[in-house]
Design a protein that fits this description.
This protein has a domain of 109 residues: Formyl transferase, N-terminal domain (Rossmann fold), CATH 3.40.50. Helix content is 36%, strand content 20%. Helix 1 crosses helix 8. The protein is globular. The structure holds 5-O-phosphono-beta-D-ribofuranosylamine. The site of 5-O-phosphono-beta-D-ribofuranosylamine (GRF) has 15 residues, from helix 1, strand 5 and helix 8.
Length: 267
């Protein structure tokens, strides 16, 4: 039996990162295989890539599920194990001053969709879940199901900026408009906030005077295609651990990723 890392992937769009990971698996550059591809969006072009490589895929149609939940007046039943009060307390996706009813409706509608994702994913055994251009936030309901207290956690994301700068959906656009002279991308573990989780790896590129938003995106994606497989390989080699970082001036610490040297593999 193969001992390659079993990777599940979630996408929303074109899936060029997914393709880079599939290629790295198929060429033996990384010791992994993609065992399923899921999408929130039935139109995602990346699903064709899964099909072409005979990787099973599924759709949990977020738009439909969320619209159905709204149309029911938020009255459809939620999963039994959802514990809404605890979820609301743990999540840091919404600003703290969001009115309680609004926060509840938002998180509940995502939980409905996440239950559909988890239901589809339960058909596959996997070691790591990668978000590869998956344009949906994930609540603690989903993350706790997948992570189940493991160190390192099991959900990774790739972000189109050098975090903690420019979280959100338009990292390259933000980099360009801010006038940055360096841009980049980040792979991080996903925590309860948006693009706030512990950083695993980053790659940077120079922004030249004649760069446009398009050329920045192109440079960034080229770096992403190298970075994501490299981070997955570190996970496959069991070289990633979450630890407490150094305290800042106020004595506050963040959880950070420690990369173990190759010789410490498996220890
Ligand atoms: C990438 O820029 C990624 O960083 C961001 O969404 C984009 C997805 O591109 N999260 P693709 O679908 O992998 O081509």
């Amino acid at each position: 039996m193969s001992n390659r890392l079993r990777v599940g992937a979630l996408i929303s769009g074109g899936g060029t990162n997914l393709q880079a990971v599939i290629d790295a698996c198929e060429s033996g550059k990384i010791s992994a295989q993609v065992v399923f591809v899921g999408s929130d969006n039935p139109e995602a072009k990346g699903l064709e890539r899964a099909q072409k490589h005979s990787i099973p895929w599924f759709v949990a149609d977020y738009r439909k599920i969320i619209a159905g939940y709204r149309a029911s007046g938020y009255s459809l039943p939620l999963p039994n194990d959802c514990g809404m009060d605890g979820l609301l307390a743990r999540q840091s996706l919404l600003p703290k001053d969001t009115p309680a009813e609004k926060a509840k409706a938002y998180i509940a509608s995502r939980v409905k969709a996440e239950a559909a994702l988890l239901d589809n994913m339960s058909r596959y055994s996997f070691d790591l879940l990668i978000l590869a251009g998956f344009m949906r936030v994930l609540t603690p309901y989903f993350l706790d199901h997948v992570n189940a207290g493991q160190n390192p956690p099991r959900v990774m994301n790739i972000h189109p900026a050098l975090l903690p700068s420019f979280p959100g959906t338009d990292g390259y656009g933000d980099t360009f408009r801010y006038g940055c002279k360096v841009g980049g991308c980040t792979v991080h573990f996903v925590d309860y906030g948006e693009d706030t989780g512990p950083i695993i790896g980053q790659r940077a590129f120079a922004v030249e005077p004649d760069d446009t938003l398009d050329s920045i995106r192109k440079k960034g994606l080229e770096q992403e295609w190298l970075l994501y497989p490299a981070c997955i390989q570190l996970f496959a080699e069991k070289r990633l651990r979450i630890t407490d970082g150094e305290p800042d001036a106020k004595g506050k610490t963040r959880r950070v990723v420690k990369i173990l040297p190759p010789k410490a593999c498996g220890s």
